[in-house]
Amino acid sequence: MGRKSYIPTDVGSFNLPNVGIFIYLPKPIGGETVSEKAIAAKQLVVDEIKEKIENAKSVTLVGFDRMDVKEITDLRNKFRESESEYKVYKNTMMRFAFQELGYDQLIDELKGSNALIFSNEDLVNGPKVAVDYTKEGDEQKEKLVLKAGLVEGNYQTGDQMMAIATLPPTEVLHSMLANVLQAPIRRLAGDLNNTLAKIAYALDAVREKKEQAGE
What we know:
- The protein has 8 helices and 7 strands; from the N terminus they run ββαβαβααβααββαα.
- The protein is an alpha+beta fold.
- It has a 5-stranded antiparallel sheet with strand order 4-5-3-6-7.
- α1 packs across α3 and α5 crosses α7.
């Protein structure tokens, strides 16, 4: 008969069933139990997720399925080139992080295998790489799904994240906005110059009439 291995039923104890022996294993002096170390390690992961979310311009929650190692590696490289980061976490770790940050809407999307895309330099970059991948074919569209996200800390649906992916880079958007805001100012300046020119013309005409009248 093969040997049976008995796993401790609780941290700090070791129970041999049907033998009547119970061995208590005290906590090491100055050390941590296995359970405490595991909890501390998980908290580090949760803290990492929270920190990355708080520092990112945008965060995209994506579901992935049937992606092999090469596909994931290639996709990670594309995100890295766009100054974004693609990282897979356990749903439980993401759930704790979302709860602590108050993003309960994201928790509802934690079904199946999921990853987070952190856009650290431009909020458009991460979603754009993901959407471009899904456009490569029907198979890719099924393998990677944009579920939801955050832009500057505000919740966005999957469709909204896909729409954001179609926007030009933030720098271009700022330039476009500046042009829109400056257009009325330029128009006002032009109108003012025209008005001043008309006043100057009218005053000049009055002066000429007075000179002709000998005044």
